[in-house]
Design brief:
The chain is of the alpha/beta class and 355 residues long. It has eleven helices and eleven strands. The protein has an eight-stranded mixed β-sheet, sandwiched between helices. The protein has a three-stranded antiparallel β-sheet with strand order 1-2-3, covered by helices on one side. Strand 10, helix 9 and strand 11 form a beta-alpha-beta unit. About 4% of the residues have low confidence. InterPro entries: AB_hydrolase_3 (IPR013094), AB_hydrolase_fold (IPR029058), Carboxylest/Gibb_receptor (IPR050466). Keywords: Hydrolase. This is Alpha/beta hydrolase fold.
Length: 355
């Protein structure tokens, strides 16, 4: 039903917010169900994948879609194999998107098969109904749920038992996400490596090995050169970016809030001004980080500045994918995008294999 009140925020074709609080999200991308690999489906059978959905918290409708290489469940020689887990967060400016979107299902289906890993794709709450930090809280809740699975991995009698857990190497977990999901992965990693790592200790026996950020969605009040130029091949425009941040950030916050701008004052990536300035939220340890940057993305310069700041704290690997824009790996079917997507998957596989 269409609201009778005035529209106060809109990104054409994606989201419309009315003065009375009603939110409309046209189905611009179809949602697809999780599916077991079917031998009669040539594409699925070749990929050798299976997937299914699991509720994390029914009260908030937070759930996750799991992708599991079918070979580890059907081959006797592989049934004792332990493989790493990628905890993945989808993009959409915190306001749109779903772990069930067909573009994410296809991308993660292929990624899991190509790099031989388990993937847990988290479906978190969206703004503006649930502004930040709701998405971060849902991410941490998903990790807490994962801890329970690690503890119960040998208890196949429990009603909470998930069969995939016996194949999971809970000592090799990576936080991964694209766009807003990359922001979530970064902020979760920051939480787990701050305050003497207290939250990470609470999640034991989970062990986190690294973070992969694909075109992470950051912002700031001063404009960067790539934001000013607004590359034509970027699926994300500057106007849309600003709207997403207005809808996602807490009331009264601007784009220099640390959740939006990781290089702004108050961010844990910024060193204290003096030795007398003691930060209780100071980073105590930073995992290895991989950042995937798109040349034709308005976020390019922010992503590169972020990498430069991180290099002072930890080992950072970043790749710039030429000729492609924001979210090319899930939104574009061009030949160049397909080539760059295969390159990205190879880089992610190499990163995970080394850690």
């Amino acid at each position: 039903m269409i609201s009778n009140s005035d529209v106060i925020e809109e990104i054409e074709g994606l989201i419309r917010v009315y003065e009375d609080g009603k939110v409309e999200r046209p189905e611009i991308v179809p949602c697809v169900a999780a599916s077991m690999a079917d031998p009669d489906d040539d594409e699925q059978f070749e990929e050798g994948m299976t997937s299914w959905d699991v509720f994390i918290d029914k009260s908030t409708n937070v759930w996750a879609r799991f992708y599991v290489p079918k070979t580890i469940t059907t081959s006797q020689s592989a049934q004792k194999l332990k493989i790493p887990l990628l905890v993945y967060f989808h993009g959409g400016g915190f306001c749109v998107g779903s772990a069930a979107w067909s573009c994410y299902h296809e991308f993660l289906f292929k990624l899991s098969a190509k790099i031989s890993c388990l993937i847990m794709s988290v479906n978190y709450r969206l703004a503006p109904e649930n502004p930040l930090p709701a998405a971060y809280e849902d991410g941490f809740k998903a990790l807490t749920w994962l801890k329970r699975q690690a503890i119960m991995k040998n208890d196949n009698v429990s009603k909470y038992y998930c069969p995939w857990s016996k194949h999971c190497d809970f000592s090799r977990i990576f936080l991964v996400g694209d766009s807003a999901g990359g922001n979530i992965a970064h902020n979760l990693a920051t939480r787990l490596t701050s305050n003497s790592g207290l939250d990470a200790k609470r999640l034991k026996p989970l062990t986190f090995k690294g973070t992969v950020l694909v075109q992470p969605f950051f912002g700031g009040e001063p404009r960067t050169d790539s934001e000013k130029s607004s590359p034509r091949r970027s699926a994300l425009s500057l106007a849309a970016s600003d709207t997403y941040w207005r809808l996602a950030l807490p009331a009264g916050a601007n784009r220099d809030h640390p959740w939006c701008n990781p290089l702004a004052k108050g961010s844990v990536l910024i060193e204290p001004e003096s030795n007398n300035n003691i930060s209780t939220n100071k980073l105590t340890r930073v995992w290895p980080i991989m950042v995937c940057v798109s040349e034709m993305d308005i976020l390019r310069d922010r992503n590169l500045e972020f990498c430069g700041a991180l290099e002072k704290k930890t080992k950072v690997e970043y790749m710039v994918y030429g000729g492609v824009g924001h979210a090319f790996q899930i939104l574009s079917k061009s030949q160049l995008s397909q080539i760059r997507t295969h390159e990205m998957m190879a880089h992610i596989k190499d990163f995970i294999t080394r850690y």
